[in-house]
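Question thread 4412

I'm putting together a teaching handout and wanted feedback from people who do this every day. The idea is simple: show students a protein as raw sequence, then show them the structure tokens that encode its fold, then repeat with a second protein so they can compare. Below is the first pair exactly as I plan to print it.
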Amino acid sequence: MRGTYGAMGPQRILFITPNFPPFAQAGAARTGALALHWARQGHKVTAIGARIGTASGIHSELEHSNLASVMLPIDKPEPQGSQSHVEGKSTTGSKPGKLKRWLWLARQMPDRFRAHWVPRAVQEAIELGGGDAFDLIYSSGPPHSAHIAARQIAAATDLPWICEQRDLWVDNPYIERHPFLTRYYEWQGRRVQRNADAFVAVTTGARDTLAQQTGKEVVLARNGWVESDFAGLEAAPTPLDPDRLTIVHAGLIYAERRDPKALFEAIAMLGEDRHKVRAIFYHDEYGFLDQRIREHGVADSVEVLDFLPRSEILAVERAADVLLMCRWPHPAEDDVIPGKLFEYIGARRPILATGLESGEAAKIVGEGGFGLATQDAGKIADQLRNWIASKKAGGGRIPDLPKDAALKFTRNEAFAAIDELVGRFASA
């Protein structure tokens, strides 16, 4: 029966999440880590994900005898012999009217996975055996189409469903659309959420918001980091640059929000010492960084490189002097913890978090002794000078942060709450 409780042994978990290795986006390492966590505990995990072409190569494919994955295409298949372009020109006819475009946009809600991936995921779950093959459905989004698919599978199989929102679907301050589309987007989210048996959130603010929205149980399970990710990287590596303080940003830059402006202002304040700083970014959104670099005149201290596979970026993080996390300097960011924060903690290098000095992420950085969280360029400039001096005193490398502090934020610690929830909600 749906919602059965009790002490359970190994479970058969149907994991619905488009972002799954090896096709997960850079910020979605959690899904693969959670699946491996379950598999290593003896649970049988079947993940239904999506073939996201732009994400290929960022994460390695997962291998475990208790883990199986099915990666489904996103787009509508083209009929055999069809040709969408002739001599470089579209054959679709005239530009669609406003009503047709609005209908198309509505069909893309909550994201591009809804139209074709969702029905494929539901069909795949049924063909794999449905309620006879699994004990529980666990969905993780964004993309929030994962929850639409999970809701439909739960309705067809009567299996219990746990809905994990790594970012909020409803009342998410990062979502900007036309007011009409926003109302539809959030109506859709509330409608889908009503059918979930329980929820998982990754910040205390999101947990409280989801509890208020749904009136159901919401468990907090932050992202955390995995010790095995840094296997072979424990010893202090050769510095990326023995002569210059090397600051690495390994996550996503969100234009006009997660902005390195404060760091660039601080570098400009250093005078001649600015040449002792080298900031490296492994992503640029729509040329936004290039624009900021020109604005602040720091091209001699900042470089932008292409994404690296996660296995390579972890080694870069260990070899860096400082790891940069950009936060939105807005009160809405108080309830957001970028997933990269925990990976940075695992790398045991000092952290510079730009943005507000308040909020969950800033509290972890400050109270954990992991670095500095501020939007004050003057404070950042002073800290850069201190790090430059520490690097020189350390013979070209700033000492690693204590491991004991980092161990408080491992994924095993964070996932313990999910384990308890799965044990209670798995079907008999």
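The second pair follows. I'd like the answer to focus on this one:
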Amino acid sequence: MSTAEEESASVVLPEGLRRGRPGYVTALVALVAAGLASFNTMYCTQALMPTLTDALGASAADASLTVSAATGVLALTILPASVLSERFGRGRVIVGSAAAAVAVGLLLPFAPSLSWLVVGRGVQGLMVAGVPATAMAWLSQEIDPHYLPQAMGLYVAGNTVGGLLGRLIPAGMLNFTGWRWALAVDMLFALACTVVTVFIMPKERRFVPKAIGLRTEMQAVLNHWYDSRKASLFLVAFLAMGTFVSLYDFLGYRLTTAPFHFSQSGVGGIFLLYLFGTVASARTGTVVTRWGRSRTILGGAVLGLVGLPMVISTRLSVILIGVAVFTYGFFIVHSVASGWVGALANKDRAEASGTYLACYYLGSSIVGYLSGLVFHHFGWRTLTLWMEGTFILSTILVVTVARRSATH
């Protein structure tokens, strides 16, 4: 390290933020607000899918593209965004990304057709990528390691609330208006959250700019894949998230048919079960501290395996319990896996986090769309078996990671 770099490091690398110290709460509020805005925008059309099918004459699989387009483009751009944050600062990327995504979102209600809505959602996915790409790395960089599991859990919990409100707000608005106004009101909420982030986001204190190059960044990503534990966690993200988004994408279609006959706006109530994910995310950090990552993530996977088969039932109470149990288990798996990747990455942490999230959102896009085809051609029962299969594969990988970690 040069003398100039040493002097810079001595200035920008103070002690990490700790609970009870100045800046800790402000940092968490800013990151949670960014998560609320970004996850709201990511899934703002999911609860509208049955309505889009009726209003625009789209199949369930085509309507799901309004979700898959956003998450798919996000998945492709999340790694470049995380790399750029290593050079220009994660805080700048987070603020700029959240603001740009909301700006695009405010134009979506004017889309003249489903095709244009899908295109707009793809652009929105491009714009929003900077928040999930860098937020976890920002926390890992700025928060004292002792408080990182709790901070990460709160951030993920905020994401679940953002995702929940991104479904509930437009679904609730369907009681009073059409999908365009429902989407517009939801984007105004995302705008309010973004304003909070812009005004209170603290400056990075521990950031050191990194020289970036295409070859070195590609090598950094490959190095993470060479680590069998990190590679397994990347695949866990792909399969588990794909299963999760498939369940919530198409459950609404199931509940609007016999024997349930939910209204279009009534389907939005099912997303209240997201609160189980919020609780799971917030508590996971404490559980990990007590029981360790391996036992905690295995417990989450088992809960997912128990809950998912229950949604095949024709009894509403059984379906709701199954969705709640699966949601709780999934968010345990995601919270542990995302934090574990950061802990395993001794260097090039942004690339590790970006690769994990790229796999996470690729799973949402690819598996989610394939699930739509399964549902369209074979129905709910076959879709449930398909989802159980993808989550079983994810669980096998979880067991593999736990065993390999025990030998290190």
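Top answer:
Good format. For the second protein you could add a caption like this: The chain has one domain: 16-204+214-406. The chain has a mean pLDDT of 89.
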